[in-house]
Amino acid sequence: MDAREERRDRSRSNSSASSGRPGAYDSPPRSHVNSEDEAENYRDDGEYDSDGDTEVEDNGEPDGNIVNRWAVFNAMPVRRQEDSNPRINRSASQERLNDKLMIRHLREEIRKTKRRLDSAYLDLEESEYYYRREKEAKLDLERRVRSLEKEKQEYELDFSSMNCELTMAEADNKFLTHENEMLSDLAQQYFHSKEQQIKYKDRAKRQLRKRKKECKDLETEISQIANADEYRRTIEYERNRADGYQNLMQHIHLMYQNDEQLRREQDPSPLRSCEICLQKYMAVGRAVPRILVKCGHTLCHKCVESLRPQEPEGVRCPFCRTLTKISRRKGIESLPKNFTLVS
């Protein structure tokens, strides 16, 4: 309450300063003085000075007698100064005194009313100030509510995205767990198969060592059994056998030449045929003429096949005993064809 009273006093002083008057509640000067008592109450500056402020209880409500007092004051007749009757003068003095008291009371009522107006004005300003503060606080609260709602939406979005990430992470975790189990099974199978392979390898190594030992024993037995006479007899037998084949081939060749000569004598254009089997050469089939590259002799495909198993590396010519090597991949087909004999 003391602070409110101070604000009211400052407001009254400001209002008096702005109006340019000496006092906020001073009454206007009167044009004339009707009595000695009134003259004493006037100060040198022409303003009326009352005997003292009357203590009036201010209960915050307007005085209801103000209007009646103003009516009585206005209804009072103006006394002339020419009346010289003492009784009339006393009654006039009494009336002026009553008027002075009435004016004093009216001034006090005016002061009280002004004080109440100033208090109401200050209360109004204070209410407006608090209203503005409340409005600003309300706007600030609305802004904060909007900001919090926006943050709530952002948090909800973040929460939903984190939920999605958590779901994906759980799915990835399940997938990785399944993959880990599969890899564990594969690793166990791999180590089991590796152990089996090691066992099989050790077993194969033992069998190989055993077979090597057996081979060494067999070689030792062969070296003990074999002798030079047996080798000599075998070589002589093979040589005699080869000579017999060669003599047979020469005899067959002579027979073929004689037969060829007879055919030429009988037919001016003799048929060309193999010198071993006397089969006519043809462009296709097993009668195709094949040239032995090393010696140049020509044999049919059938005769070359019959001579092929005797030599693992190629074909040995039955006429000159020259070895012609043959490709293992192509076989007899690698030998060139003699197209001059079939043209």
UniProtKB/TrEMBL annotation:
- The biased composition feature labelled Basic and acidic residues covers 1-12
User: Could you tell me which Gene3D superfamilies the record lists for this protein?
Assistant: Zinc/RING finger domain, C3HC4 (zinc finger)
Write the record's keywords in alphabetical order, separated by commas. Coiled coil, Metal-binding, Zinc, Zinc-finger
Record GO terms (molecular function): zinc ion binding
**What is a single Pfam family found in this protein's UniProt entry?**
zf-RING_UBOX
| Acidic residues: bias regions | 46-61
Region: Disordered, residue numbers: 1-67
UniProt keyword Metal-binding present: yes
The residues covered by the RING-type domain are 274-321
Q: Give coiled-coil spans as residue ranges.
A: 103-165, 201-228
The answer to keyword Coiled coil applying to this record is yes
Q: What is this protein identified as?
A: Protein CBG25560
